[in-house]
Amino acid sequence: MHRAIATVCLSGTLEDKLNAAAAAGFNGVEIFENDFIAAPWSAERVRRHCAGLGLSIDLYQPFRDFEGAEPDSMRRNLRRAERKFELMERLGVDTILVCSSVAPDTVDDDDLAAEQLHTLAEHAARRGMRIAYEALAWGRFVNTWEHSWDIVRRGDHPALGLCVDSFHVLSRADNGNGKTDPAGIATVPGEKLFFLQLADAPRLDMDVLQWSRHHRLFPGQGSFDLATFTTAVLATGYRGPLSLEVFNDVFRQSAPDRAAVDAMRSLIALEEALGRQPEVRQRERIELARPAPAPELSGFAFTELAVDADSGPRLARALAAMGFAHIGEHRSKPVQLWQLGDARILLNSGGEQATAVSAIAVETADPAASARRAEALLAPALPRARGPAEADLTAVAAPDGTEIFFCRTGAEGTGWLSDFILTGTASDAPTAVTHIDHVALAQPFDYFDEATLFYRAVLGLDPRHDSEFAAPFGLVRGRAVTEPAGRVRIALHGTVLRRGDWAPGVPDPQHLAMATGDIFASARAMRARGAPLLSIPDNYYDDLGARLELDPEVLAAMRECQVLYDRDGVGEYYHFHTEVFGDRIFLEIVQRAGGYSGYGAVNAPVRMTAHRAVRSPTGEASRRLPSEGQAP
Ligand SMILES: O=C(O)c1ccc(O)c(O)c1
Ligand SMILES: [Mg+2]
């Protein structure tokens, strides 16, 4: 389909925005009026620049406070409109968005609004132009798509049609803010639907104008069902642009090239979702992106930690005490392979990077298909330095820079294990650890929403378990992306607000969590072997005993083993932690019981406070993520 983006989505000048949109592969743009007004270029120059970039100008917007005006204002409004039509002629754009009036002196009279829009359409038609009328969710009187459609119908002019914007429709459908039925859009005749704007948003219980102006997201980053919504629009016969219109405080200050790629990824993923809707699949002549389907992921092949001269030996000692065996050495790089049960960890001391999770390898049913899909979804491919006997592992970069590898352990030829000279064998899991349960990655503030879409679209993981909690260094936001059966879980966390210099650059270290079948046996065995485990204050256990009526023996065992606890409607979660290595990494052991699928977010502030001692808030510069704290 024709993919477009409103200039308001991107940061910078009009020139920056147009260049970024074209570079990301968009076919067209909506010119947001303020971007044009502030630009040093004439309309003709903008038109030429767009043409040179291969961008059509699909919409000029917005034209505000037109309908329901007193006769005197109407004369002024028509004059204002004529000036904009002249400008549109120069720009070479034939459709203008008129959004429903918010003016306090608007008259509540649908017949009057319809008559005035008819007149406006008549003026537009003389120049071969069209009026796309959009109901703002906070319009003075017109604030549902149904109401705008009723007025367009009464206005009865071929040059008068609707603009539907998923935010205005779904924000009202979702929070019970007013009666509206997104599915009903399917009944509008396609020729009366002039334009489609798409935005996602997180579910927030707040004023709808503030929600729209600050928190809109690209499709797939929030909680709206845009596939169903767009299917209803396509059912009308609408074949115009899929156009993104996102107002977002973070994107407004993000590098426009990167944001435009994120935006394009969201449309590719949406088109793919549309192709799965039976109603859409049956219609011909809809060209949709069809990336290779996401192959099934069955777990983590390995996780690689970048270590330095200090953290490397400390981590190696900790892994040994936790029961891991050092079973191999990489053929050409300073990389150690450690294993316990099915949990494999690489310690890589060859890079410049500070101690951190540097790579995650997922077990995929088809590594080549995973790589093709990642490419189709614009994941940046990473070049691999490859030695003669080494597997050709495909890797892409996640938004935070973590390398994601696609592996099939044991597969002929591509087995990554053959990169290692095996020098030992895994012990018999003396500490009951079975596999990697999850990897927790600190996200740079600017890339949190981009990361959600990346993992969802590229790896086919589902976003779940949104949390927000007050921690010693500020408010922390968490979200997990998981394989449906829970075999791959990645927990993302980041700061909710930017902060000054006192708090650490990242709110919480990254960590690697291993699953055990017996949390107390693991804790006792690891402690006996000298693992550097974290101490939890007595206050925590006193509160736990007060909040939950736990078996006194279990509570005593938790206190003895420094195990934290959570439960939800279906199951229980037991977990304990190591100290922090190199400021940026710790290890966790978890036991899930009865289908608990969370991450013990309720306990995170306690654990973070316990880690506080090793995360002194001074001298932070060296502890920021590579992508944090850089000059813009
Ligand atoms: O927030 C606004 O004013 C605004 C303007 C134009 C739009 O298309 C829209 O959806 C919102
Ligand atoms: Mg809009």
TrEMBL record:
<feature type="binding site">
    <location>
        <position position="245"/>
    </location>
    <ligand>
        <name>a divalent metal cation</name>
    </ligand>
</feature>
<feature type="binding site">
    <location>
        <position position="588"/>
    </location>
    <ligand>
        <name>Mg(2+)</name>
    </ligand>
</feature>
<comment type="function">
    <text>Catalyzes the conversion of 3-dehydroshikimate to protocatechuate (3,4-dihydroxybenzoate), a common intermediate of quinate and shikimate degradation pathways.</text>
</comment>
<feature type="binding site">
    <location>
        <position position="134"/>
    </location>
    <ligand>
        <name>a divalent metal cation</name>
    </ligand>
</feature>
<dbReference type="GO" id="GO:0046279">
    <property type="term" value="P:3,4-dihydroxybenzoate biosynthetic process"/>
</dbReference>
<feature type="binding site">
    <location>
        <position position="438"/>
    </location>
    <ligand>
        <name>Mg(2+)</name>
    </ligand>
</feature>
<feature type="binding site">
    <location>
        <position position="197"/>
    </location>
    <ligand>
        <name>a divalent metal cation</name>
    </ligand>
</feature>
<feature type="binding site">
    <location>
        <position position="165"/>
    </location>
    <ligand>
        <name>a divalent metal cation</name>
    </ligand>
</feature>
<dbReference type="InterPro" id="IPR050312">
    <property type="entry name" value="IolE/XylAMocC-like"/>
</dbReference>
<dbReference type="Pfam" id="PF14696">
    <property type="entry name" value="Glyoxalase_5"/>
</dbReference>
<dbReference type="InterPro" id="IPR037523">
    <property type="entry name" value="VOC_core"/>
</dbReference>
<feature type="binding site">
    <location>
        <position position="511"/>
    </location>
    <ligand>
        <name>Mg(2+)</name>
    </ligand>
</feature>
<dbReference type="GO" id="GO:0046872">
    <property type="term" value="F:metal ion binding"/>
</dbReference>
<dbReference type="InterPro" id="IPR004360">
    <property type="entry name" value="Glyas_Fos-R_dOase_dom"/>
</dbReference>
<dbReference type="GO" id="GO:0046565">
    <property type="term" value="F:3-dehydroshikimate dehydratase activity"/>
</dbReference>
<dbReference type="InterPro" id="IPR036237">
    <property type="entry name" value="Xyl_isomerase-like_sf"/>
</dbReference>
<keyword id="KW-0456">Lyase</keyword>
<comment type="pathway">
    <text>Aromatic compound metabolism; 3,4-dihydroxybenzoate biosynthesis.</text>
</comment>
<keyword id="KW-0560">Oxidoreductase</keyword>
<dbReference type="Pfam" id="PF00903">
    <property type="entry name" value="Glyoxalase"/>
</dbReference>
<comment type="similarity">
    <text>Belongs to the bacterial two-domain DSD family.</text>
</comment>
<keyword id="KW-0670">Pyruvate</keyword>
<keyword id="KW-0479">Metal-binding</keyword>
<dbReference type="GO" id="GO:0051213">
    <property type="term" value="F:dioxygenase activity"/>
</dbReference>
<protein>
    <recommendedName>
        <fullName>3-dehydroshikimate dehydratase</fullName>
        <ecNumber>4.2.1.118</ecNumber>
    </recommendedName>
</protein>
<dbReference type="Pfam" id="PF01261">
    <property type="entry name" value="AP_endonuc_2"/>
</dbReference>
<dbReference type="InterPro" id="IPR013022">
    <property type="entry name" value="Xyl_isomerase-like_TIM-brl"/>
</dbReference>
<dbReference type="InterPro" id="IPR043700">
    <property type="entry name" value="DSD"/>
</dbReference>
<dbReference type="InterPro" id="IPR029068">
    <property type="entry name" value="Glyas_Bleomycin-R_OHBP_Dase"/>
</dbReference>
<keyword id="KW-0223">Dioxygenase</keyword>
